[in-house]
Write a structure and sequence with these properties.
403 residues; mainly beta; 4 helices; globular
Length: 403
């Protein structure tokens, strides 16, 4: 089983499972958690849930850098929704919403009422939109049923979506999309299944010379690309994609520059980690993700020289694990932190925004400090015990299984 793709969903499952709690006397207690997934130009997106609004009944949510201006985006009649992507300029939010058991691809413009929902194709029972261009004219994601994924491209305002599954691939997944050349060109990061799962980059060019690149490097069993920046932004050889690749023993944080074997392994070995994954990249080329061992995972940010900073150190005491999903062009890092209620086995999950020391970042100093800001709901520790045992052990097993 290829766990590079499933790592994101296993992490979400683990965070949610760790967050389901009951009071010590056995009575049900509502405890709200938040999960941040994407950011763009001062807007952060994700979802909130608790033990009554579980991971299967989440509400799509956006924040504006603080807790005073958060917005619940859950569409009317939906019993579940999530924000999974935000355009780089912050104008559009993407994800999915469930109504009467069907999962619709969703695009918002800052409010629940603005939601536009896209019906899955006839063969599927779910569509999820992961990314969208700044102009809102193209969106990327996938439709799925029975563990088959089909990468797709939406053109908002038009009906339906177009499959971009490679001809010889049995499954595929389109994640982030970026536009270049005033919106005339696009690149999409994701993966395609060719026996094993391969990181994949789709290119749609204004001159019609559409191409795609298999990014799975020599010597690696499988891989996935989670984010990309356009060619015109960073390199003339192709978009810079970030993700992970598994070599049979360890999972490596990867940065590709246009081709499979033109890559940099970002894994922070010098910090004592042997496994890592890259989740997001901004226009400047700063990268975020996480690194891990058998017992925890720490949110990481890499500067443009590849120097890694462990963001876990900037969290308050009792936050034992974290991951970073997105970084905006101001260098603000968005992710999730897990809180220990006094027993490592039990935890809550909270959206967190790490803001950098702007002076140190602006002058390119190798050591940049960050301040952690928790987004709604603000953590309020209480006396609770978990619904079940062994959840933390499961998170450790997941990490070991990934490499």
């Amino acid at each position: 089983m290829n766990l590079s793709f499933h790592s994101r969903f296993a992490r979400t499952f683990a965070l949610t499972a760790l967050s389901c709690v009951i009071a010590a006397n056995g009575a049900s207690t509502i405890f709200t958690n938040s999960y941040a997934r994407a950011s763009g130009d001062g807007i952060q997106g994700g979802y909130i849930s608790d033990d009554t609004v579980s991971k299967y009944n989440a509400h799509a949510y956006i924040w504006h850098g603080d807790n005073a201006s958060n917005v619940d985006l859950n569409p009317a009649n939906a019993d579940y929704s999530k924000v999974l992507g935000i355009s780089r300029n912050g104008q559009y939010q993407t994800g999915d919403a469930r109504i009467n058991g069907t999962y619709y691809g969703a695009i918002w413009q800052g409010s629940a009422a603005s939601a536009t929902l896209y019906t899955p194709p006839a063969w599927a029972n779910a569509s999820i939109i992961e990314g969208i261009t700044n102009d809102g004219l193209h969106a990327s994601g996938y439709s799925t049923k029975n563990n088959v994924w089909d990468a797709e491209l939406w053109t908002p305002g038009q009906s339906g979506q177009v499959s971009i599954n490679p001809d010889t691939a049995t499954s595929s997944y389109a994640y982030k999309v970026v536009d270049a050349n005033q919106g005339k060109d696009m690149e999409i990061a994701g993966w395609a299944q060719f026996g094993d799962q391969h990181a994949y980059l789709w290119r749609f060019n204004s001159d019609g010379s559409n191409t795609s690149v298999d990014l799975n490097p020599d010597g690696f069993q499988y891989s996935a690309a989670w984010d990309v920046q356009p060619s015109s932004t960073l390199t003339p050889d192709g978009g810079v994609a970030v993700g992970n690749a598994f070599d049979g023993s360890n999972l490596h944080a990867m940065e590709w520059k246009g081709s499979a074997n033109n890559y940099t392994d970002l894994t922070p070995y010098g910090l004592g980690f042997t496994d890592a994954e890259a989740q997001g990249i901004n226009t400047a080329g700063e990268v975020v993700g996480d690194a891990y061992d058998s017992y925890r995972f720490d949110a990481m940010v890499w500067d443009t020289s590849g120097h890694a900073t462990d963001l876990q150190q900037f969290l308050p005491a009792n936050y034992y694990s974290s991951t970073a999903y997105s970084i905006d062009d101001a260098g603000n890092v968005l992710g999730v932190a897990n809180y220990d209620f006094g027993n490592y086995e039990y935890s809550g999950a909270y959206a967190v925004l790490w803001t950098p020391n702007t002076a140190a970042r602006r002058f390119g100093q190798s050591t940049v400090t960050y301040t952690a800001h928790f987004l709604y709901p603000v953590p309020e520790p209480t006396s609770m015990v978990a619904l079940g045992l062994g959840v933390a052990a499961a998170i450790r097993r997941r990490r070991k299984a990934q490499g």
